[in-house]
Amino acid sequence: MTTLKRAVASLQAWWTRLFILGVLAALLLDIPFWIDLTAIGLVLALSLVRSPRRDDHPTVSVLCPVAGRWAALNSPADKVPSHGIRAYGQAFAIDIAHPRPPGFSPRIGWGLRQRRPDEFSSFGEPVYAVAPGTVVAACSRQRDHRARTTWPGLLYLMTVEGLVRESGGARFVVGNHVVLDHGEGVFSLYAHLQRDSLTVAVGDVVAAGYRLGLVGNSGNSSEPHLHFQLMDDPRPSAAAGLPFRWIGIEQDPTNTDPTWATGEVRDQIIEGLPANGQVFVARAALSD
């Protein structure tokens, strides 16, 4: 059953494509309603199949994939699954970006202008391997699109862009990315990287702290940030997320950025796992 669930989940892009075709067929072709409704319902049911949970997997200790001062968003310290869904192996995923400047207002406006990615300080920051490993996936050709930080932009991201990327497969959702195999069934994913910034290729063996690429704004991303996760399969579409802790980060309960939290920032510290809105400092990587 585990193997079957993983195989069905890995075909997520095909379920999205078939769903779109089913809707188009219902609108354009003279197909009996019950046949089309049954087909669409079956595809929807298959699209909801997820890889088996690995919530009981031992917590994996790894280095932090960045250096310097960062803030957390969508952290598994606050909830699991951290991003609201378990698809693409992101049950324990975390998003990180630079703390916002003083006086910054998180208010989302209605303007049509979307800011360029290089207007954000996180854009172009180095991303490092969290442990020794072998590169099993690397993609760097997707563009860094403008930020989606207004209501029209977010609506476009969640509808038109989202549907197109879902139908294209996991690699278009995570954007430019690297996946490392650390052995013993543990893989790390670094997503939304900058176009043409990768320093590795499939088959390369890297040391902990090796620079993999730069933070970008590719894939399903509203603004430049790094999406990081551990998983039990090299394919995000077939993977279950694994819990982790970062070694060597400095955490202070009074050091926060509330603009990165949807509610009140927690005042408790989970060692190695910053919560939403908590600011942390990561030491420099071991090698570059």
Structure characteristics:
288 residues, two-stranded parallel sheet, 10-stranded antiparallel beta sheet, globular, alpha+beta
Shape: globular
End-to-end distance, in Å?
Answer: 42 Å
Low-confidence stretches: none
Written as H for each helix and E for each strand, in order along the chain, the element string is HHHEEEEEHHEEEEEEEEE
Oligomer: single chain
Question: Which class of secondary structure composition applies to the elements?
Answer: alpha+beta
Helices, by number, come to 5
Radius of gyration from the alpha-carbon trace, in angstroms: 19 Å
Major pleated sheet: 10 strands, antiparallel
Work out the helicity level: 10-25%
Give the averaged pLDDT, no decimals.
89
Kindly estimate the percentage of residues that lie in beta strands according to DSSP.
15-25%
**Strand tally, please?**
14
Give a verbal description of the structure:
This protein has helices at residues 2-9, 12-28, 33-47, 151-168, 170-174; strands spanning 60-63, 68-73, 94-97, 126-128, 133-139, 176-181, 187-193, 205-206, 211-214, 226-231, 241-242, 244-247, 249-256, 278-282. The protein has five helices and 14 strands. The protein starts with a helix and ends in a 6-residue tail after the last strand. The model has no long low-confidence stretch (mean pLDDT 89). The protein is globular, with a radius of gyration of 19 Å. Strand 6 and strand 7 form a beta hairpin.
